Amino acid sequence: MTIRSARPDDADFIARTILSSMRGHRPRGWFDVALGWPEAQCMDFIARVAVARAVSMWHVSQFWIAEVDGKPGAALCAVPAAGTGPAAWRAIEEIGTATGLAVSELEAIRQRGAYARACWVQGGEGDWMIEHVATDPAYRGRGLVHALITHALDQGRAAGFGRATISFLIGNAPAERAYAKAGFVLAEEKRDPAFEAIIGAPGFRMFARKI
């Protein structure tokens, strides 16, 4: 197993990683709901966002990949928490405009995606944020996520950050176990009945640890 930076030609794998991580243990995640499209169309859009000019937490340059025998097996992104929301929307606007979405369609995406605001919890302005952690099912049980998190923590420490955060859906037991194993503990939790009605999970938990 080796760890490397993601490249533009990894866009499809990163798109699968983002979609899978956002779904967690549920059948739908943020992009499914916000875009409201079939999975293949969602995947294509996310892959375009991953190589957009606007660099967001979904951009390939923000991801690390764990390879096994030269094939991507797992990935995560690790970024400063500050400004991630506005940067993400700029990437969506760029790709939406480039693919011919009208202003009204972009606004509809924004409105559909707003369901998560009431219970989304992430790191503060001075935190190192790890997100979008997922493993290809064929490579589970090989310690890829633990190795990636360790690498991401080293990167955050080297960049001068003192605390790392990671968020996940309440009820995603495998994610919770993996993050606890990496030294994270519960820092905050938010629940929302409207969110649960859409996704089937009560809300989000954020774990944190010193680095």
C-alpha-based Rg, rounded: 16 Å
In whole angstroms, the N-to-C terminal distance is 24 Å
In terms of DSSP E residues, the strand content is 15-25%
Which CATH top level class fits? Alpha Beta
- The total tally of domains equals 1
Unreliable stretches (pLDDT < 50, length at least 5) are: none
CATH topology value: Aminopeptidase
- CATH homologous superfamily descriptor: Gcn5-related N-acetyltransferase (GNAT)
Q: Please tally the helical runs, counting DSSP H or I stretches of 4 or more residues.
A: 8
Q: Using the alpha-carbon principal axes, give the shape.
A: globular
List how many beta strands DSSP finds. Answer: 7
Helix content: 40-55%
Instruction: Give helix and strand order, one letter per element, not per position.
Output: EHHHEEHHEHEHEHE
Q: Can you give the mean pLDDT?
A: 97
**Global structural class:** alpha+beta
Main β sheet profile: 7 strands, mixed
What is the CATH-assigned architecture?
3-Layer(aba) Sandwich
Strand order of the largest sheet: 1-2-3-4-5-7-6
Summarize the structure.
The chain is an alpha+beta fold. Helices cover 41% and strands 24% of the residues.
Give me the secondary-structure topology.
Blueprint: E1 2-5, H1 11-23, H2 30-35, H3 39-49, E2 63-68, E3 71-80, H4 84-98, H5 103-113, E4 128-135, H6 144-158, E5 163-169, H7 173-181, E6 185-191, H8 193-199, E7 203-210
Parallel strand pairs: 4-5
Antiparallel strand pairs: 1-2, 2-3, 3-4, 5-7, 6-7
Helix pairs in contact: 1-3
